[in-house]
Amino acid sequence: MIPGSFAYHRPKSLTEAVALLADLGEEARPRAGGHSLIPMMKLLFAAPEHLVDLGGLSDLKGIRVDGSEVVIGAMATQHELISSDLLAEKIPLIRETSLQIADPQVRYLGTLGGNVANGDPGNDMPAVMMCLGAAYEVAGKTGQRRIAAREFYRGAYVTALAPGEVLTAIRIPIPPAGHGSAYEKLKRKIGDYATAAAAVVLTLTGGRVATCSIGLTNLADTPLWAEQAAKIVIGTSLDPGTVRQAAAAAEAITSPASDNHGPASYRTKMAGVMLSRALARAKARAA
Ligand SMILES: Cc1cc2nc3c(=O)[nH]c(=O)nc-3n(C[C@H](O)[C@H](O)[C@H](O)COP(=O)(O)OP(=O)(O)OC[C@H]3O[C@@H](n4cnc5c(N)ncnc54)[C@H](O)[C@@H]3O)c2cc1C
Fold first, then answer.
1. Rounded distance from Cα 5 to ligand 1 centre (Å)
2. Cα 192 to Cα 9, 210, 283, distances in angstroms
3. Is 193 in the pocket of ligand 1 (CB under 6 A)?
4. What letter does residue 135 receive in the DSSP assignment?
5. Per-residue model confidence (pLDDT) at position 191
6. Which residue's CA is the closest to the ligand 1 atom numbered 27?
7. Considering only CA atoms, which residue is closest to atom 33 of ligand 1?
8. pTM for the complete prediction?
9. CA-CA distance, 183 to 227, in Å (whole number)?
10. What is the distance in A from the centroid of ligand 1 to the CA of 287?
11. What whole-number distance in Å separates Cα of residue 214 and Cα of residue 165?
């Protein structure tokens, strides 16, 4: 389908972008890689009157270490996440997840900022960012603020971003050396959104889980942080009984829709299966 007509703006600085969005009001939308927004416009699910292209803002690029955190510019593409030696060394979960998003063509343009700001429960990065305890830096006309990923998602396509705010960077605490992580995603075919997916980051001490965090993708209106399931595995050696309990706790917080990925009951069951696999893989990778 052909999207409705819109005005196109290409600011040269973040200040200009924020001012434009504030002036244009709720009918304006930031455009990053365009690989969620443009399909939505073609399907007539979104009809912004103004697109504010963030592609010219070099401040929103780059991947760097800042103390105990990695800071990723919102306009870093998924391809850049995959190519980053820094991320491969410090937070390999991000590379592993990026490789499971869509296909290379989408990943060359799709950005981390767009993926987490979009609010689509099918996006893979939000649950991973909740699992990692990330925070989002945003800028608006009244200044800057930081929002925890775990508090950002309010409903399908509803986030804590106020109209006119731009997500500028994602701050991720660097997990301890020797941690293990995994992202397990069930999809119908290569490049598809998740039927169910689970992210795990854990550390081991003496063969027992010392810390654990779990995120779940596309299993409710928002990404999920499975706090209770993580608590169940802490202090254990991840014996089969404990893994079954954790999987049941994760399944209990899901509320997926029945859709073309399968019936809700199947998707819930797959949440437990993905979590069990992710726990096993993260444990095998932990030093
Ligand atoms: C065929 C196909 C398959 C896909 N498969 C997957 C998949 O398996 N998993 C997955 O996670 N994604 C998938 N995607 C989506 C893809 O990852 C998108 O690139 C991503 O969701 C959005 O990033 P973007 O940079 O393209 O953002 P855009 O499409 O430009 O924007 C998305 C939304 O976020 C807002 N936004 C963007 N950047 C900012 C910002 N900095 N500040 C404030 N608001 C902002 C926009 O206004 C818009 O509402 C797929 C896309 C396609 C076309």
1. 20
2. 31, 34, 27
3. yes
4. E
5. 86
6. 114
7. 118
8. 0.97
9. 17
10. 34
11. 28
- Contact at 8 Å (CB) between 14 and 56? no
Amino acid code (one letter) for 258: S
DSSP E strands, the chain: 7-9, 28-31, 50-53, 63-66, 69-73, 135-140, 143-148, 153-155, 158-159, 166-173, 180-186, 196-205, 208-217, 224-225
Output the six-digit token pair for 202.
Answer: 């854990």
C-alpha of residue 98 to centroid of ligand 1, in Å: 12
SS (H, E, C) 183-248: EEEECCCCCCCCCEEEEEEEEEECCEEEEEEEEEECCCCCCEECHHHHHHHCCCCCCHHHHHHHHH
The structure tokens listed for 233 are 């595995």
Residues of the chain with pLDDT under 70: none
Q: What is the pLDDT of residue 27?
A: 92
Q: What is the pLDDT of residues 173-194, one digit of tens each?
A: 999 999 999 999 999 998 899 9
Which residue has the least CA distance to atom 10 on ligand 1?
123
From 27, 59, 106, 261, mutation site for ligand 1 pocket: most ligand atoms within 8 A of C-beta: 106
**Cα(243)–Cα(260) distance, rounded to whole angstroms?**
28
Does residue 9 contact residue 51 with C-beta atoms inside 8 Å?
yes
Q: Which ligand 1 atom is the nearest neighbour of the CA of 168?
A: 41
CA distances from 107 to 76, 103, 111, 117, 247 (A): 10, 6, 8, 16, 31
pLDDT at position 63: 98
